[in-house]
Every structure is written in structure tokens, then in C-alpha cells.
Amino acid sequence: MDAAPAKTTAVTTAGGERLLTVDRFVPHVSTVPANLGRTVGLHLREKVLASVVDGAVHNKPHVVLFLHGGYSPSTVAYDLDYRDYSWMAQLARAGFDVFALTHTGYGASPKPMMDDPCNVDAEFQGQLIPKVLKGPCTPRYPHKLISSRTEWDEIETTVDYMLKLRQVEKVSLIGWSTGTPRAGGYAAMHPEKVDRMVLLAPAPFFPSDTPPDPMPEAGAPIILQSRDMLMKRRWENDVRADGQVEHPEVREVMWRELMFQDGLGEAWGPDGVGVMRAPNRMNYGWRANCARIRTPTLVMLGEFDNYEKRRDSWKGLASTHKLFVKLRASHFAQYERGRHTVHRLTEGWLRTGKTEGATAGEFAADWDGKIAPLG
Fold first, then answer.
1. Nearest-angstrom CA–CA distance, 108 and 115
2. How far is CA 273 from CA 248, 252, 266, 277, 342, in A?
């Protein structure tokens, strides 16, 4: 399978430059058991100034890859087309060549075994009764779908594609939530290909550092997340101050885009609301990989976001060139007032390996983004 033709759109920035958005499908020989050995196309979005691409022959661009979390595809997590909420666009306007991968089971990438409602895990099937299912049913594919290993394989294919495309030797990685063990695991295995790394809201350690045996693990390939679970129980319950969410309507913008990217989930859920589909995952190795990471790493974590458990990965990070920033934010900092701090600190770290002149240490950011040593 050759790479599908890229689709390119352009807008003009306030400074008069052309900002390109390029959507590609990167050929990958799948290691997902349900797709094993098949060549599939992984959705890869790029955002970059036309001047950066035009000058790439003489000035190698700083190439960045975003890796998403457990439910939201990268196009929603990092490129929400609303006001100044696109993290990708902020970095691209600053001169970076920015890419975002969407893994198997999400968005426009392949979703093997995910169109059959009987393949929804029994814990979630009640959300489909009676609209989609008359009653509980057993999965026709009785296994979980993806694993840490299959995702690292997809990252490897994508990074190698980007290195060749832009003729560079390294990329920087950015991960949010479950995207952090995806990024961190790859950095631990391929330090020679990773320049710097930014981890937002790192995942707590997984129960195991070894893959399940047998593989794939018994179960079902699909899990679901309702709008109420995402917006109220996971987000609104951790909004602790007036002004933390500057534009409350961003939640509706985000949900509409999630439903657009999912497609079938919009029809499966309650009328006019929809439900998010995601692959049931076999996660492992995060604790062990943290102990192997030597890449310069910035960790940002919201104080209202299961703080102590998520902070464990910072404590276990082996890199001596590492810096921690406590944010006034929930798990969804890139959609809150704190996004301005996230954008600014990310740009500084990727460009210089420093935050406010420091290469290491622990700091806290106030509501206005002012950084001070963590007390």
C-alpha cells in the first residue's frame, strides 16, 4: 500500500503567512492481532507554515509529533478548530513542523472489529440498549483490541516516515494522558530518535510492566464513554474556580467534533448526543519505561487531576534533564485558561530545553502563568 495522496488546506495568519494543514495516511503493517499483517493507513495530520516547508532544504525544521490519549483522537486533542485552542496551530505559527498521529481504533485510522455493537464490553452495553441492542450479547471477537506494543509499533512507523519526509535525525514528542506512556515508551526504546519530550497530565502507572499472556487478552474490543461521563464526571467535577474554563461552550464544540470524528458513535448513543467509541487496551510497561527514559522531559500536571497518582511518573522518570510544572487546571488543561501556559512552556522547552531559564526542578504556575518554585 502506497501512502494515500495528501489533502492540504491553507489559511492566512495574522502575520500574512500561509498556515498549511496536511492530512495523510501513513502505510503501516499492522501488529494489532485483529489486523495482523495487513497494510493499513494511519491518519497523520501536519500543521506547518508554508515558509518552513519551502525553506526545509536549507534549514532543517524542528519536527514535533503529538500522541493522543485513551479516548480522543489527535485531531480533537490537539487541533480543535475554535478560537486559540489548537495546540498544534500555536506551535506551527511559532515555526515548528507539527504532526499528530491518530492510532488504530480512533478517528480516521482503522477500527477493526469496532462496528459491531456486540463487540462492546459488557460493562458498557447498557448504553446501547434498547436503541442499538435489544439486550446483552456476547462479543463476536472475544479479545481486547490493541496493546502498548502495537501502539509503539505505529509510532515507530510514523516517526521513520517523518524523519525521511523532512530529512531530519530526531523528532520531539508530546503526549497527553495515556499518550504519555505511548510517547515515553517510544523514547525509552529509541532515544537516538527523540530530541525532547513534553508530557501533559501523565497517566498513572499501569498494574503490570509485562504484556498479558496469552496475547491478545480475553475480553471485548470496544469500550464507550458517554457525554455525561466525559463532560461532567471527568471534567466539570474538577473545575474548582471561576474562570478556570474561559469559554464553557468549548465543551459542546469539542463533543461535536468527537462525534464527527467517530461517525458511528453519533448514531449509537442517545438521539442528538451520541457516545464515544474507543479500543479496549492492553496497557503495560509505563513504570519500567520511566526508569529508562533519558530524554530531556517537561512534565505538566493540573493540581485538580488525580495529582498524586499522576505525579508518580515524574518521580520515576530517570532523565536528569527534567522539569515539573504544577498547573492550576484539571485533566483538560488544553481546553482551559491554563492552555496559554501549556502553549508557552511547550514552545520554550522544545526550542531551548528550558523553562524560565531552568533545565531542571519543580515549579508551580499561577492562574496567569507566572512560574515560581514549587513550595
1. 14
2. 17, 10, 7, 13, 30
Contacts of 347 (CB under 8 A, 6+ apart): 90, 91, 94, 96
User: Is the peptide bond preceding residue 216 cis, with omega within 30 degrees of 0?
Assistant: yes
* Pairing verdict, β 39-49 and 18-29: antiparallel
Q: Which residues contact 78 (CB under 8 A, 6 or more apart)?
A: 66, 68, 86, 87, 88, 100, 174, 176, 334
> What whole-number distance in Å separates Cα of residue 144 and Cα of residue 156?
22
Identify whether the C-beta of residue 35 lies closer than 8 Å to the C-beta of residue 112. Answer: yes
What whole-number distance in Å separates Cα of residue 126 and Cα of residue 122?
A: 8
Tell me how crowded residue 373 is: count the other CB atoms within 10 A of its CB: 9
Q: With left for phi above 0 and alpha for psi between -120 and 50, is residue 323 left, alpha or beta?
A: beta
pTM of the model: 0.97
Residue 266, H or E segment: helix 264-268
| DSSP strand pairing (194-200 vs 18-29) | unpaired
pLDDT, tens digit, 9 for 90 and up, residues 38-55: 999 999 999 999 999 887
The residue assigned the cell 503529538 is 66
Backbone region of residue 248 per phi and psi (left: phi > 0; alpha: psi in -120 to 50; beta: other values) = alpha
> What DSSP string describes 96-158?
-EEEEEE-TTSTTS--TT-S-GGGB-TTTGGGGTTTT-SS----SS-B--EEHHHHHHHHHHH
> Which strands form 322-327's sheet, in the order they lie side by side?
7-12, 18-29, 39-49, 97-102, 63-67, 171-176, 194-200, 297-302, 322-327, 361-365, 371-373
What are 143-178's pLDDT values in tens digits?
Answer: 999 999 999 999 999 999 999 999 999 999 999 999
β-bridge mates for residue 46, sequence order: 22, 99
